[in-house]
Design a protein that fits this description.
By secondary structure, the chain is α+β, with helices and mostly antiparallel strands. It has 9 helices and 13 strands.
């Protein structure tokens, strides 16, 4: 049983590559966390750093949020005395104004939670600072969370999803077999189960092997603003006869790629940045088992 596990899925993927390719894949990947532009400002809720924004967006915040002003340390919103619900609705109202003004695109009618700027393990039982529209997280540079699943077959081939052209971010690009943001009130495990069912048509893990592969924080400038997200990564070795099928319209097709073909796609920049980082993280988690 142990022999089968060690030489299946992600282990099989790495074992199929020559040593040089494997080293390049694991050792020269682009840094997941990029430095922000020097002109970006931190905006705060009293003493809690909320995120990073451009100077223009900081000006917008001071105009839209009551009791928000420029101070030496950045843009400061005095929202501390408010309750979680009150803070959420004040910021949600500002984001709705941004949407009306044409500043905020990709509205999803789904809320994410923000606990604090160094929250690596979200817990819906813990009191979050606020819950607002998910599109507002990049718009205001707020830390979010997502679940990413690398889908392997026992022989090392990988199932890859192509994002639907209707997606608000990265339409048409290649992604992990399942990937989704963590909505307010949902645990990582619940999000994982739901996304596997909705995106890949997998309703039970019986006959498959799921392994946690750790987390990685990604940050970079995107068209919508500062992207700051913790990816909770899992490696899933699927049964040989399983074929994913999408049920929520967010995937246009699935591709089953052998290791070298996926490496070529990676090098060509066909995968989203977060899917690339999730794959690297998943492979690093098992690399020590592969000689």
């Amino acid at each position: 049983m142990m022999q089968r596990v060690l030489h299946s899925g992600p282990h099989g993927f790495l074992s199929a590559l020559d040593a040089d390719t494997r080293q390049r894949l694991l050792g020269t990947q682009e840094a997941a966390s990029q430095p922000p532009p020097p002109e970006y400002l931190t905006w705060w809720c009293d003493e809690e750093p909320m995120g990073l924004v451009s100077p223009a967006r900081a000006d917008w915040l001071t105009q839209q949020l009551p009791h928000c002003s420029h101070q030496p340390k950045g843009c400061v919103w005095h929202g501390g005395p408010l309750s979680r619900a009150q803070r959420s609705e004040v910021l949600q109202t500002a984001l709705e104004a941004a949407r009306t003004q044409g500043l905020l695109t990709g509205w999803r009618n789904e809320r994410f939670s923000f606990w604090h700027s160094h929250c690596l393990q979200p817990d819906p039982r813990a009191d979050a600072l606020l819950d607002v529209e998910r599109a507002g997280f990049r718009f205001l540079g707020i830390l979010s969370h997502a679940v990413h699943v690398n889908g392997f077959l026992p022989d090392g081939r990988v199932w890859i999803a192509r994002r639907a052209l209707s997606k608000a971010t990265d339409p048409g690009m290649l992604d992990n077999v399942t990937a989704g943001g963590l909505p307010a009130g949902e645990t990582v495990q619940k999000c994982l189960q739901r996304e596997l069912a909705e995106e890949a048509g997998l309703h039970s893990l019986q006959g498959h092997l799921l392994q946690a592969a750790g987390s990685i924080r990604t940050s970079r400038v995107e068209a919508q603003g500062w992207h700051d997200e913790v990816l909770h990564v899992f490696n899933l070795t699927l049964a040989p006869d399983f074929v994913p099928h999408n049920t929520d319209g967010e995937v246009s097709e699935f591709l089953c790629l052998p290791p070298f073909a996926l490496v070529q796609r990676l090098q060509a920049g066909e995968l989203t940045a977060d899917a690339t980082h999730a794959l690297h993280q998943g492979l690093r988690a098992v690399a020590s088992d592969v000689s």
